[in-house]
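step: validate -> pass
step: tokenize input -> pass
step: predict -> running
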Amino acid sequence: MLAKSGFHGFFALFPNNSNDTLGQMDDIPEALRDNPDSGQSSRRAPGLIVGGLVGLGAIALLGGTFFFRSTSQSQVESPPTATPPEPIAIVEPSQAQAPTPEEPDNILGHLPYQEAPESELKAVTANGRIRLRTAAASKFLQMQAAARTNGIILLPISGFRSTSEQDYLFFKVKEQRGQETSKRAEVSAPPGYSEHHTGYAIDIGDGKVPATNLSPSFEKTAAFRWLKNNAAKYSFELSFPPNNPQGISYEPWHWRFVGDSHSLETFYKVRNLQQPIKNNR
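step: predict -> pass
step: emit ->
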């Protein structure tokens, strides 16, 4: 009642609008008229909503940070996964490709050789004209003596030759006989490419059949047959047998010493040949 009296007293000051104003107040629900904080609550609602959203965002941000840190730590602490080694392919010997041998330096099938030092040469004849390296000379003299006990005369025809001597035998004799270079190379090496330069090679004949000296017919002599059966005992071997890898004509009279490391390297180090060298014949 006081409230109403107050309102009527108030509106009495404004007689023109009092009745209208009271009528309007009567139309407002009592609950709204008696609640003085309703306007403030309405104004606070948006703030609360915004604050709630900010709070939720902060919680989400903190949760995401914690999750990221946990994930990163687990990745760092996790031991690396070992990668299994790849299987090693095993190549069977039959499948492996053999290296292709390099063709050695040669001229018309003849290989290069260095001259033996004069200080290492020893005579195998009484006149001293035919010489070999010391080791080869000693073995040849032993072989010659052994053959003589069997009635065989091993005649030394040629031993060490210098480059200048080989130059004459190859070029001058070729001119005298009118031979083509390739034909001459079948029976004689160019200078610098003769086994005779080494002091290990020797041409042997039959002292009883001199007509066969330096001829393929020497293989029919008793001296050749004896050499074929016994030369290896003294570390001598035939240099150019039939179908030799160098493609040189068969020379039954040409033998070489291979009884020490140096002689073996001299003749075999450059002879890794699988196919014969082709001469331009």
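step: describe -> The beta strands are 121-123, 131-133, 154-158, 201-206, 236-240, 251-257.
step: cleanup -> pass
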